[in-house]
Specification:
There is one protein chain. The chain is of the alpha+beta class and 389 residues long. 50% of the residues lie in helices and 16% in strands. It has ten helices and ten strands. The strands form three sheets. It has a four-stranded mixed sheet. It has a four-stranded antiparallel sheet with strand order 2-3-7-6, with helices on one face. Strands 9-10 form a two-stranded antiparallel ribbon. Helix 3 crosses helix 6, helix 4 runs antiparallel to helix 5 and helix 8 packs antiparallel against helix 10.
Length: 389
Amino acid sequence: MDAFTQLDFLDTEDQYSEEERMVRDTVRSWVGDRFLPVIAEHFENGTFPSDLIPELAELGVFGPTTPEEYGGAGLNNVSYGLICQELERGDSGLRSFVSVQGSLVMFPILTFGSEEQKREWLPRLASAEVIGCFGLTEPDFGSDPGGMLTTARRDGDDWILNGRKMWITNGTVSQVAIVWARTEDGIRGFVVPTDLPGFSAPEQKHKWSLRASITSELVLEDVRVPDSMRLPEAVGLKAPLKCLSAARFGIAWGGLGAAYACFDEALCYSKQRIVFGKPLAGFQLAQKKLVDMATEITKGQLLALRLGRMKDEGKLTPNQVSMAKRNNVHMALEVARTCRDMLGANGISLEYQVGRHMLNLESVITYEGTHDIHTLAVGHGLTDLPAYR
C-alpha cells in the first residue's frame, strides 16, 4: 500500500501553528517507522509492545500539557489532541496506554494532588519510570460510577481500602494506581502504589477488541495507605468525572486518527483493485462510500479543532466534550465498517488495518462513557433535564 496521506479536504493545515504541526509530524513519523511494523503481530498475540515505552517517553507524549517544572512538555491542548490522533492512527490500544498515563493518572495528581505528590510522581510518570492506571469502573458500576462499592475506611493516620475495579488499562504493569473509593465524607481519590500488601491486578484475557492493550482487574483487600496518599483536593464524584472529561477530549481526536487510517487504506486499495476491468474506485457505489466517509471525517476534524481551541481558551464544557467523543468515535466506527466492506475478504486480514481498527473502536465507543450515555449528557445540556435519573 502507498504511504499514509491524511484526508484534508478543506485544507485545514493553516489552522495549526508551526509547533502544533511539528508535534503531529514527529509522532506521525514515529508511528509509521516504529509502531506500525509490529502492531499486527502484537494484536494477533494479544500483547502490548512494552519495549517501545521508553521511546514514547522520549517523544514526550506522556502528559504533554503538564508544566515543564513537573516533567511535562508544557504543550497546548491542540498539540495533545494531535498526539492522540496520530497514536490512534496506529492503534487504539496505543492511544489508550498514553491517555491513561497522561489524562487519568498525571492529570488527577496535577489537579487534585498536594505539592509533594506532584513532585514525587509527575516527573517519574512523564519519563515512564513509573506506569500508572486509573481505578474507577467496577464490575457492576460502569455508566453509574456513583454507585461504587469500593470503600476507604479511616484507621488512625491511615486508610484501609477494599473493593474491586474492572476494565483497567495498564493495571497489571502499573506501579501506581489512582483509586476512587467511597468514604464517610463521600468519594475520594488515592494514589496507591501497587506493591502494597493486599493489592493485586490480574490481567483480563480473551478479548477480541483492544488486543494490543493490557486490560486488568484491580483487587484491593485491606490495602493500607497513609493519609499522605489521599488526593487532598479530590472531593466527590465530580473529581473523577473531571479526569474522564480530560481523557474524552483525547479520544475525540483519537477517533479521527483511526478514521484517517481506514479511509486512506480504503482509498488506496480501491484505486489499485481491478474489478470488472477497471479500478474499484471508478464505480459509482465505491465513490459514494468514499464521499460519505470523507464528509463525515471532515466534520469530525473541524469539531475536534474547535474543541481544542476552546479548551486552550478555558471555555470548554463537559457537554461539549461529550458531543465530540460521541460523534467522532461513532463516525470512526462507521468509517471502519464501511472500509472493511470495501476491502472485501481482505478486510478481515491483519495484513490490512481496517479490521483491527473496526474491532478496537467497538471498545472505544463503550469506554469513557458509552455512546448512549453521551447522548443523554448532551441532551441534558440542551434541555436542562437529566434523562438518566
